[in-house]
Amino acid sequence: CLVHNEEMEIAGTPMAPSVIIDQNGTVLASTGFSQGVATATLRTRQYCRSIESEANLPLSRGLEAWKLYFNDSRSKYFAPLRRKFATPRKSAYKKRKIRIAVVTHRFAHQIGKKDAPFLQLVREACRHRPDIVVCTEMETECKPEQPRIKTHIQKLVAACAKTDSHLLIGGIRVSKPSSPQDRSSHAWLWDRRGKQIFESAIMLYGRGCGQGICDTDFGRIGVRLCGDVYAPELDRLFAAKGADIVFNPSMSWGPSGQINAELGQVRAMDNGHYIVNAHLAFSDPGQRSQIIDPMGGIVAASAYGEDSILVSEIDLDSPRGIFIPSGCREIDPQSYLAAYRSRTTFALFSQRKLLKLRRPELYEGIDQDRPDDHYVTRDRGDGCLLPIPQ
After folding, report:
1. What residues pair up with 311 in beta bridges, in sequence order?
2. Average pLDDT over residues 346-369
3. Nearest-CA neighbor of 96 among 317, 244, 350?
4. How confident is the model at residue 363 (pLDDT cuts 50, 70, 90)?
5. If you average pLDDT over every residue of the chain, what do you get?
6. 15-48 CB burial, b ≥16 within 10 A, e <16
7. What is the pLDDT of residues 89-136, one digit of tens each?
8. Cβ atoms 168, 189 nearer than 8 A
9. How far apart are CA 190 and CA 162, in angstroms?
10. From the centroid of its chain, how far is CA 133?
11. CA-CA distance, 288 to 260, in Å (whole number)?
């Protein structure tokens, strides 16, 4: 139960409600913008444990790395969370101001279903000559070894290569040698010449290969898929490795599109990187593709409920962090500003400073394998087919 009053520091300050947020970043209850009380029922860890065995599903959090499956030791993937933040080494990039095109489409218009409308959308996106074309997560029919699917993917890659664009597609249903029936979601990235350079596998219920990063000619990127947004550890790993921007091809798994948008904003603010959500077009008004800046602001969103192309330009060297009160500035007493604004100025508290405030000791145990870890696979090295930079 949370009580909220209307006390504000200065007139003109944006109002904010008091909210109860669970450990995945979902707002469970809000007081609204006036005085009030928010009440929510929270599931205790003991309660979750009591029904886990019946549901055969991990519901609680803690040292378990919630609902994440992976193919190797915890230390390989989660060790950075146990270390103090150190600024990652990065190469000089050719450009930092980039154009992004996000392809949003109806469920039926995708690889393995109605291929032609999807190919037309990608070609339309290429006419904007973006630095990268980002597609959503495909359904289970997108099996790259099948001749028709393989040919269609080749056409998409060729279309992007003609306009000197990278291409990212989620939902590639790769068949793994040790478990051919497991078709969990993968994302493939091609460079401007049409060469496949990076792969990421979903870690939520999948067999993930860790959250590696990829250096392109415009910056360092990370890729996660679908419900991976519900595991805040993954974006924190991207931040620790110096990701400038995180791409999330997704069918928007979760309670609603609005909640997924809010989760993307939370991940961006927590870690200080851009986030690009590429979602399907459904009837939910909150279900959009979005580009979110490091402050958590949605700078661009797709059209509602229809095939569309979202195009936006961003500067990867823009300020990252939060603005906090610092010192005072003079305001002309005759100015209208004096009537509702204090003499406070704001300085940027940088992403680097924020990450240095992390407390690695709180992650103790997350990087250690446990014998009772019932959802960690032991298929070593069979998560991704391409080598993943760490």
Report:
1. 101
2. 83
3. 317
4. confident
5. 80
6. eeebebeeebbbbebbbeeeeeebeeeeeeeeeb
7. 888 899 999 999 999 988 888 888 888 889 999 999 999 999 999 999
8. yes
9. 13
10. 16
11. 10
